[in-house]
């Protein structure tokens, strides 16, 4: 027996809602109407200010449910989605809710039938409202106003926001903002009503206008700078942005004014990033003479712009040993030859002592130009940066490709970086061979100018290590050339 | 050099931080700013679901203030814009400045909280102490209850890492590269074993804190949103199968909440060891899709790897689920009125929501193709793989050109391809 299947009442009713988001009122009214068996087609639901149904009876006089009428049934899922759907701006929402409630009396599991049109519609309304609430949590932007109450010792901070929701969600979201900004004094103004929190009590206010909200906040400059900086121009995905942040929200968000220029500049910025990393040297030079000519013209890093000359490597073009230093110094720059200054002389002494013939080795530098700063009339040596070394690698590699040494001896950290492309610690890298890609071996030791800077015990210790390295190189070279 | 202003520092340090993909603020413990020891309440809340407060034109969500404390660094990792040998402008915030900036953004509802990372200055321990100090100022001096994500430094003292977890909602340590060889080559100062050791330490702290919470109401929380990590894709030669394998090991051994993939993007002042060309962005997307398959669709890492081609790469033109279905066609068609949930999840075009709907709806009616159309986004993709009351795909499932029929048009995939 299902007594409510057939309507027992035949009159029509208009229900005028006291507020567009008053779910509790709807629920109370709907319960009574279901108990009286008023079918959905006999009720018109009207919002305040909305047009009532002219052909229905007057509102207010509802039938009294019989005392023995069973309470209406509704599934948990229905109440869950109905509470949200009631906040939707669709004028048909209350009629939809009532129709579903009516149908639930004979089919309590109706909400599980996701292919039913009414069920799909209420789920859709619920989803729209949840999304609108979520966007409100996300896109409300407060601006700081300092309020000077007469008589108060100091000004009080008041945060005010202007927001335009799509649905009647303002009151329903008061709790969220209260939980989030408990110790702040804030107001959210919207065309659907306002919220005011003073740190203790929440008040509701009538609808407001955009002009009621403050027009600016200096912190927005910082925020815009952050927005522009955190954006990666190498990855432009405008569709993904628009899907989550539709244009209709943009007008009340300070950062969105930047979007057009960020997009317009993105490809140019990415191209700049790539070209900044790239050094297009073209084809490798085919002879050492060609390298010599090219390095004199090289201006790919700022060192080339200084008043100096490129210094080319020196030695047999088929040497088995290649000795690589850091960069030419003052005297090398003037003479145009590598390792002729104080460090070069020290190197010669040690090579002799170790039994290595400098004349049989190809001696060159990692960086081709002398880098210096002026101190009075003197040009003072400056170490090249890692970036400068990396750019200049092209030349040392071109020389290595032509000379094809069996063993490369790198003097100092700059030379080691020039050969390996990464920074290594001399103390850890010395004393063992490092295989290079073309099958030759790299040995690393300190730069002789380092020995010149040391004094006393430290100098003795480092000299001993340097000599040991050279001795090992001589032995290894003998094996390789045997 | 003249002193940088806050806005200049923010520009440099936000720019330097943007190569970290994660901006998530979800999955942490519920916190409200109402009430509390000081009576008047604090500032900030977290309610489980993260909120994206804005979206940048790169399609990424902006949920947290993501900055570095400093971009000075004593390390020299090739893929990193902040490495020692890079020529970028350098700047440095004090912990106090970061805390102030976080609060002034948070009070205006720009953000959910802070994601703080840093270049290594002086020593790993010193850097870690500075990061913790910023979190401490927020939590203790300002009663900030919003989200904090701290990047931890694997080389730092485990005691400091532990302290970070007490203030933060989430901690993360980047594994950086999918293979040890790649790490040795591109990040010479880092050590894979050390990174794993630190992740293991964080994992056990999380488990201990959860366990303590069960017994004592006021036991301190430790990183309630868990730990995550990031891998750079396309800077070394690791293929998708390597990456998926590594991710599955990370999920399994360290209880990670998320593994992020960041397509290597050309950085200004790049090191000579790196490729200049970026990997296609879509590759990163395919990896995330495979990640989803493992986390929500019940695929094992082996099954995802089976969807890769002979070169170990996932196809770029179709998603990994479709690739798997095309490779294992004998599994289909599935009857939507009978097939179990875990099998329906394997139908290309059916997501978790659609499968739940189908299972709820089929208790009420025998489903026709039309019903399935109402429950899913697009029936065209689903049709070859299912049977319904009035539908059998017959020869469709076995057609040789099925892949071509289902693959989206190439230009729709990547509008702004390089």
Question: Can you offer a commentary on this structure?
Answer:
The complex is a heterodimer of chains A (482) and B (418). Chain A is built from 16 helices and 14 strands. Chain A is α/β, with parallel strands linked by helices. Chain A has four domains: 3-135, no CATH class; 140-212, no CATH class; 219-277, no CATH class; 288-481, Uracil-DNA glycosylase-like domain (Uracil-DNA Glycosylase, subunit E). Chain A has a five-stranded mixed sheet with strand order 3-4-5-6-7, with no helix packed on it. Chain A is elongated and about 120 Å long. By secondary structure, chain B is of the alpha/beta class. Chain B folds into two domains: 6-217, no CATH class; 326-413, no CATH class. Chain B has helices at 6-17, 95-107, 124-141, 158-167, 180-186, 192-215, 240-254, 281-296, 301-306, 320-327, 341-344, 352-361, 369-375, 379-382, 402-406, 410-413, and strands at 54-55, 61-62, 64-68, 113-117, 147-151, 170-172, 227-233, 258-263, 334-335, 386-387. Chain B has a six-stranded parallel sheet with strand order 3-4-5-6-7-8. In chain B, α7 (240-254) crosses α8. In chain B, 49% of the residues are buried. Mean pLDDT of chain B is 85; it is low at 411-418. At the A-B interface, α4, β3, α5, α6 and α7 of A face α1, β1, β2, α2 and α12 of B. Chain B: InterPro entries: Aldolase_TIM, DNA_rSAM_put, Elp3/MiaA/NifB-like_rSAM, Endo/Exo/Phosphatase_dom_1, rSAM, rSAM_sf, RuvA_2-like. Chain B: Its cofactor is [4Fe-4S] cluster. Chain B: Keywords: Iron, Iron-sulfur, Metal-binding, S-adenosyl-L-methionine.
